[in-house]
Design goal:
rod-shaped; mainly alpha; 0% strand; 78 residues
Length: 78
């Protein structure tokens, strides 16, 4: 049960990062930087999008781990 909740948390975090936070972080990074070429702007946007998505995945995984540890209890070892 604990593993399922961790996976659900990670997927939820990744979805939030992809659909909400990634584009917002990419646009903010573009506004804060001085770009000299369109390719540089694309690279900055892509890196910020990737970093925000990875961070939200990690946060979702940690939240799922915390919730899963509440319901997980002891593992069944023989």
């Amino acid at each position: 049960m604990k593993s399922v909740l961790v996976i659900i948390g990670a997927l939820t975090g990744a979805a939030a990062g992809i659909f909400y936070l990634g584009n917002y972080a990419g646009e903010m990074a573009l506004e804060m930087s001085n770009i000299e070429s369109p390719e540089q702007g694309d690279n900055i946007h892509a890196f910020a999008f990737l970093a925000a998505t990875a961070a939200s995945l990690a946060v979702g995984w940690l939240i799922g781990l915390g919730i899963g540890s509440l319901f997980g209890g002891k593992s069944a070892k023989s």
